[in-house]
Write a structure and sequence with these properties.
Structural class of chain A: mainly alpha
Strand content of chain A: under 5%
Number of helices of chain A: 14
Number of strands of chain B: 24
Order of helices and strands of chain A: HHHHHHHHHHHHHH
Strand order of the largest sheet of chain B: 6-9-10-3-11-12
Helix content of chain A: over 70%
Largest interface: A-B, 31 and 51 residues
Distance between the termini of chain A: 27 Å
Strand content of chain B: 25-35%
Largest sheet of chain A: none
Largest sheet of chain B: 6 strands, mixed
Number of helices of chain B: 19
Structural class of chain B: alpha/beta
Oligomer: heterodimer
Radius of gyration of chain B: 25 Å
Radius of gyration of chain A: 22 Å
Helix content of chain B: 25-40%
């Protein structure tokens, strides 16, 4: 069918605005509808949804040191969200954020405790860089397999996750285990700790500032740099990219290196800023949440920041909510699941909007 | 059909269109891509409900809600892309959905007899027992026509029926159409090709931007008049060009062998040169290796054997980037797949292969000012009709998208231009524009390889014509002396006949190189 497509008038600014609101509508409505559906669930179980949500907000932002703790949780979310988003930009689905986070944490903590006596300005960057490189290696393997052998990155990154889980488990219980304690690594050297910004007991550490810097760097890479343009072109139309002389293989590997590097850095930041050692039971789920954060943030740095804060607030506020409103903190998992469903299936929201419009 | 209006989101595809078909006539529906021809006929065939308007068949108003209703009232449609199953026989294809059974068994004999009778009656020669996969494109089209006749069609709608045919097959189709109308059938012939309209139509209705511009007959009109009706202004149909002044060899292809996606030999031992300042046209029915040839030259497809060199540099299995660096521009045949990123703004599409070089990238960052200035200049120079350089490429019309691609490829210094189907799906006005630009490039000393399924395009632009058939070059002719009929024979692969012809020496020369 051929239909004439007529474009007329200077609609540029209007259409850009429309594009912006268009990409905002889905995530904002997803969160709102998830809150409404969650509220209905709460009401059915006999709780007052408004009370519960108020407790959640108090626990996340208003109580003593709550905001700082929310930002502490948001820090790995920001870095992981950026990592996953970059893979999306290249048309790749990096499910391996969790595994890359693990190996990043492992290498970060290893460098952190194994090299005593280094000054901080050497040791801390070294540990962070080591974590990032480990993650980059993990992501890069998947990228290389995709580029050279056509192995689908969803499969390979899932497999690499299992290897990462088993590897960290083995290392922390074996070679890297500290003597005379429960299974965990030794504490990292003082020179490799990401210090608190405002001093203890406030837990907000400099990793948050690092995450903000990388948000800016991500924006610069994707919006301003030719490499970002290549990555975006490969994601938007790989045939056209190839035609235009962009190497799809090379770009795929680079995108997975950067994506994995950001996820690995998130792992290093988490162990050097929060734990300062690596426990054997290092289960976070951050890597999987970050896929939802990336979707919710629509790949835009500001969107990722807001989504990371939102998820950080929900996770951080849950404990107080459970205590103050007397509902299980599992409701948080339910809310997040609804958000993922609505963001992941925009058709649901679109059909709701259309029905309203008619 | 009276007062048909059909609106799509943002587009008025048919605006109060009235169309009348008399018994026993061939009525041509002429218009550019996107003029609303197909929409109108899809309304008639029940594929789209009209927003308003009345359809009457034999004087009775009719509500055609789906193709079943259309078929029941004797309306048949032959689509541009055939809807046949290659592994079934002609009879099986024709009776599909209307199988005759004898007990539990399928009866194919009585339908076959009826098909034989129909093909005799209307002079549409097809063997009912043949498998569709063994038939030529022209024969497959006849099967589609028979399918409609088998379902007792009185009105036949043919949507761009000549797009896939060789000139000889087109003549045969016209013969069939005349037979059909002589027997009282009525035919709607959708096309944008003026010559065909003049050859076969009894009446002509021209559509432009969803409206009827006027109706006329071949006797009262000529091609120039029809073209200006289609486009809305006068159009130069012939391309003015001076004789070529070929210089050094820029593209050399020797003993090239390339495989298709299905790993069959697509290009077999092909050799030719293109010199600076000449246009070499590759003619041939689509699917004879043109796509693979172009992709091999531009680095997009693996070369199995043989050599390609651009400006003296060997380009055997080099990356597309290296081929571009050597001075190659490529107008791809599938602009949606290769030529553009639909979700990108126009300005970014215009730097798709140069974005990482100065002035578009300075130091670490891309330079918006240079990118915007480049876009503004190309939009103006190449007459791309767009609200602004920020408009998404996907929202432009086909003609403007193509002008965007051409503008980008001509925007850097080039030595070789590979133009594959450069005016496909492009309106007449843009065709004229693109043709002029191709000649300009030639005159500026660029070597131009033109690949086109439109024989008219090849004939009007090429200085040398090569004919590709089943992956081989079967003939070579001088562009100014080539005869349409001979090229047509070559396109069908009748090399032996061709060699007894006056131009045979050229064919032998091509084959022996």
């Amino acid at each position: 069918m051929s239909t004439p497509s007529v474009v007329s008038g200077d609609t540029t600014r209007a259409s850009r605005l429309q594009l912006l609101t268009g990409s905002l509508i889905i995530p904002v409505l997803s969160v709102l509808i998830a809150l409404v559906v969650g509220g209905i669930l709460l009401a059915i179980t006999g709780a007052n949804p408004l009370e519960v949500y108020w407790a959640l907000i108090q626990g996340a932002f208003l109580r003593n040191r709550a905001l700082g703790n929310t930002l502490v949780v948001a820090t790995p979310y920001i870095l992981l969200g950026l990592g996953v988003s970059l893979s999306f930009t290249a048309g790749l689905f990096n499910i391996g954020a969790e595994g890359q986070f693990y190996v990043g944490a492992l290498v970060g903590v290893w460098i952190g405790f194994a090299l005593p006596g280094l000054p901080m300005f050497v040791h801390l960057p070294l540990a962070l860089l080591g974590g990032a490189l480990a993650g980059a290696l993990w992501g890069g393997i998947a990228g290389l397999l995709k580029a050279t052998r056509g192995a689908h990155e969803v499969i390979t990154t899932i497999m690499l996750n299992y290897i990462a889980f088993a590897l960290t488990d083995f290392m922390v219980n074996g070679p890297l285990r500290s003597e005379g304690t429960a299974p965990r690594t030794p504490d990292v050297q003082p020179g490799a700790v990401l210090p608190e910004i405002f001093g203890a007991p406030d837990r907000l550490h400099w990793g948050f500032v690092l995450a903000l810097l990388l948000l800016a760097a991500y924006w610069f890479l994707t919006k301003r740099m030719p490499l970002g343009f290549s990555i975006q072109t490969v994601g938007a139309n790989p045939d056209a990219a190839r035609y235009a002389g962009i190497s799809v293989q090379r770009t795929t590997v680079i995108a997975m290196l950067i994506s994995g590097g950001l996820c690995g850095l998130a792992g290093a930041v988490e162990v050097l800023g929060v734990y300062r050692y690596m426990p054997a039971a290092f289960t976070t789920g951050y890597g999987f949440d970050s896929i939802a954060i990336s979707l919710l943030g629509q790949g835009h740095p500001i969107g990722i920041f807001v989504a990371a804060i939102l998820f950080g607030a929900m996770n951080n506020g849950a404990t107080y909510m459970q205590f103050a409103a007397g509902v299980s903190n599992n409701i948080i998992a339910v809310l997040q699941a609804f958000i993922v469903i609505f963001v992941g299936a925009p058709a649901i929201i679109k059909s709701l909007i259309r029905r309203k419009g008619d | 059909m009276r007062g048909i209006t059909k609106r799509f989101p943002g587009v008025l595809a048919n605006d109060n269109v009235s169309f009348e078909l008399q018994r026993g006539e061939v009525h041509a529906l002429l218009g550019e891509n996107g003029a609303g021809k197909s929409t109108l006929m899809n309304v008639l065939y029940g594929l789209y409900p009209p927003d308003s308007g009345v359809i009457e068949v034999n004087g009775k108003p009719l509500k055609i809600s789906n193709p079943g209703v259309a078929i029941a009232h004797g309306i048949g449609m032959v689509h541009q892309h055939f809807m046949l199953i290659p592994t079934l026989t002609v009879t099986e294809n024709i009776t599909l959905g209307q199988e005759v059974s004898r007990g539990l068994l399928l009866d194919l004999k009585s339908p076959a007899d009826r098909i034989r009778q129909l093909s005799k009656e209307y002079g549409v020669a097809v063997d009912p027992e043949a498998y569709v996969k063994d038939l030529s494109v022209g024969e497959q089209q006849r099967v589609e026509i028979l399918k409609s006749l088998y379902r007792n069609a009185e009105i036949l709608v043919l949507d761009e029926p000549t797009a896939v045919l060789t000139p000889q097959e087109v003549d045969e189709l016209f013969h069939t159409l005349r037979q059909l109308t002589a027997q009282g059938k009525s035919i709607v012939f959708i096309t944008h090709k003026l010559r065909e309209v003049m050859a076969v139509a009894n009446r002509i209705t021209v559509l432009r931007q969803g409206k009827v511009v006027g109706s006329t007959a071949p006797a009262e009109a000529d091609e120039a008049k029809l073209a200006s009706m289609m486009v809305g202004r006068s159009v130069l149909l012939r391309v003015d060009k001076t004789p070529a002044l070929p210089k050094e060899v820029v593209l050399r292809v020797s003993h090239l062998m390339v495989q298709s996606d299905r790993r069959l030999v697509a290009i077999n031992d092909v050799s030719f040169d293109v010199r600076a300042g000449e246009i070499v046209g590759i003619a041939g029915v689509e699917g004879n290796g043109q796509t693979e040839l172009v992709e091999a030259i531009t680095g997009l497809r693996k070369i199995e054997r043989g050599e390609v060199s651009v400006a003296g540099q060997a380009m055997r299995n080099e990356s597309p980037d290296a081929v571009i660096e050597a001075g190659t521009a490529h107008i791809p045949e599938d602009r949606h797949k290769y030529g553009m990123v639909a979700s990108y703004e126009l300005r970014h599409n215009l730097v798709l292969s140069t974005f990482d070089k100065p002035p578009f990238t300075q130091g670490l960052a891309m330079n918006d000012a240079a990118i915007d200035a480049n876009a503004k200049r190309l939009i103006r120079d190449f007459d791309v009709r767009t609200p602004s350089e920020h408009t998404l490429a996907g929202s432009l019309s086909g003609g403007n998208q193509q002008k965007m691609v051409v503008a980008r490829e001509f925007s850097r210094p080039i030595k070789l231009l590979v133009a594959a189907q450069p005016t496909r799906g492009v309106d007449v006005g843009s065709i004229e524009f693109i043709h002029r630009r191709l000649i300009e490039q030639r005159d500026a000393g660029v070597a131009v390889l033109l690949v086109s399924a439109e024989l008219d395009e090849i004939l009007s632009l090429s200085d040398t014509i090569l004919v590709l058939h089943k992956g081989r070059i079967v003939g070579k002719a001088d562009g100014s002396k080539a005869k349409r009929e001979i090229l047509g024979l070559w396109m069908m692969g009748t090399q032996s006949q061709a060699q007894t012809d006056a131009s045979s020496s050229a064919a032998v020369e091509a084959a022996s190189r």
